[in-house]
Amino acid sequence: MSKVWFITGSSRGLGRALTEAVLEAGHQVVATARRPEQLADLTAKYGSRVCPVKLDVTSPSEVEKAVAAGLGAFGHLDIVVNNAGYGFIGAFEEMSAAEFQGQIDTNFWGVVHVTRAIVPLLRKQGSGHIIQVTSIGGRITVPGLSGYHAAKFAVEGFSETLAQELKPLGVKVTIVEPGGFRTDWAGDSMAYAKPMEAYAPSVGLIRSHIEPSSGHQPGDPRKAAQAILKIAKIEEPPLRLALGNDALAFLRHGYKSAAEELECWVDFSQSTDFDGIVTSDVAHPVLELQTALKS
């Protein structure tokens, strides 16, 4: 059955691969980009099944216009993919306030603006699927990406909460966490702060790895697009979906390290309650509530 997709960042990288895959599968797409003329070939090939729209996700007014254009073209929206974003490498001290804010404005607030415009529509129709493309960088960190990680971690927390709020209303939320894919994230879509010698042992190592890695990442964007297509068809999709063997390796290591540290300092953690309070008495009602929301 044909669906209407709304995809941000459709002109390049994973967004472009997903837009093409969705159209090839027979669906309709509101394809948004800062430069919609880059989508002209899709319009020529797929005609009225694609609605190219100019969109800077940092502008709430442009988001509202883009959503209105999609509704005008297709009458409704079924699947929304927040994919637009970019990376910026530099130690926190190396970044200007504007450079750091740019990461938050695009990678976090852009997602919030689109989601805010979309949620009332999906709630009223009682169906829909919001797919938030974050990153393994939304769960684990490396030096030099403080702004990027701050934004992606924020999207993860925002989206997990959103999923709990929307599930009873018939609306699904999935957080997609790609590893390294052969997009231009590490190429044209990557910006760099002016380096300081003091950060050569940490951020310098990340720079030396990322710059030459562009075009050699293990992930195939076309296969990622197919995975997202399949997830969108599942009645009970996962809350989180890691994409790529490298993503699995990094996340497993991150989860293991976090669990080990948690247990290492358990005596300190347990020392802060009032005397006579049993930890399970506090934790159980919260866990029960979470279980109920997920069921």
Structure description:
The chain has one domain (4-255): NAD(P)-binding Rossmann-like Domain (Rossmann fold, 3-Layer(aba) Sandwich), CATH 3.40.50. The chain is α/β, with parallel strands linked by helices and 295 residues long. The model has no long low-confidence stretch (mean pLDDT 90). The relative contact order is 0.12. It starts with a strand and ends with a helix. The chain has a seven-stranded parallel beta sheet with strand order 3-2-1-4-6-7-9, with helices on both faces. Strands 5-8 form a two-stranded parallel ribbon. It has helices spanning 13-24, 40-46, 60-74, 97-125, 146-166, 203-213, 221-233, 245-264, 266-270, 279-294; strands at 4-7, 28-33, 50-54, 79-82, 87-89, 128-133, 171-178, 190-192, 240-243. The longest helix is centred in the middle third of the chain and has 29 residues, at 97-125. The protein is built from ten helices and nine strands. Strand 2 (28-33), helix 2 and strand 3 (50-54) form a beta-alpha-beta unit.
| Named CATH topology | Rossmann fold
User: Averaged pLDDT, please?
Assistant: 90
Query: How many structural domains are formed by the residues?
Result: 1
As a percent range, the share of strand residues is 5-15%
Number of contiguous helices? 10
Q: How much is the radius of gyration in Å?
A: 20 Å
Return residue spans where pLDDT drops below 50 for at least 5 consecutive residues.
Answer: none
Q: What composes the largest sheet?
A: 7 strands, parallel
Percentage of residues assigned to helices:
40-55%
How far from one another are the termini? Answer: 27 Å
Number of strands: 9
CATH superfamily: NAD(P)-binding Rossmann-like Domain
